[in-house]
Sequence to fold (338 residues):
Amino acid sequence: MKILVTGGTGYIGSHTLVELLEAGHQVVVVDNLCNSSEIALQRVKNITGCNDVSFHNADIRDRSALAAIFEKNDFDAVIHFAGLKAVGESVEQPLKYYDNNVGGSAILCDVMDQFNVRNLVFSSSATVYGDPASVPIDENAPTGGTTNPYGTSKLMIEQMLSDLANSDPRWNIARLRYFNPVGAHKSGLIGEDPLETPNNLMPYICQVAAGKLKELSVFGGDYATPDGTGVRDYIHVVDLAQGHLKALEKLMMKPGLVTYNLGTGTGYSVLEMIETFERINGVKIPYKITERRQGDIATCYANPAKAAHEIDWRATRTLKDMTRDAWHWQSKNPEGYG
Fold:
């Protein structure tokens, strides 16, 4: 298949490119590089040995640029990663998130429709569940009550895609609700490279381990969890990337609108993550417990049974793999792609 990948130079996008190329798909990448690097694309080519990847430095909100790309390519499907993702920043700058994430997605879908491309895999998030009433969370759990504009933007896009699918049965859309992607490709050539102080736990731990940051701030030590710190479902980014290929296969069966949780089904606390990282990598992580971060919740982990049953996808990599591969990437690339 020929696939357009928006946000393809980002963390999850670049790992998905590797899986797509190794599976023999043709890939075209669109990214505005606002929080990623084109170097990641060259690294993907090095990993796969495939140089036939077309890259366009463009913003998905630029309708004319998108239309020009579709005009030149006969796409079978789109995988849509492009968007802003920092929870804290979204609280401070909500309009920026609605403009980029929701507005950009609407323009993308409109251009897709114009060029008769109606197979879409959307990068959603477990944040659409808000603060869940119970865990593990399955796809039938209530959505809404989101605790930050980032999560709300994902929920709004999900609703837009639902309305689109209901309005036109030619659309086939997979909404993939990610839990917490961590780790890196085993080569150490691509990984998570936040441009500023990391918002996510694992790159924060890695930068402390590398001496780039003095200590880890643990946001909240008084949650109703076994050790008081937040509990999340951490999933290896390569497992997550492979879920997109399974979703693509599902779309070729013309299912209409489908939704899947991509997680391991196990929750780990922040302190458990620190302990595992230290034990596996032999690096001490100094930390301090600080105030809770606005928009965070206590516990969130998946019931991934639906994905296992319907698209034959399961997360197979362990927490040991996640922490080892994350540190391999960071230690091999202390300045990221810089």
Remarks:
- The radius of gyration is 19 Å.
- The chain has a mean pLDDT of 96.
- DSSP finds eleven helices and 14 strands in the chain.
- The CA atoms of residues 84 and 97 lie 6 Å apart.
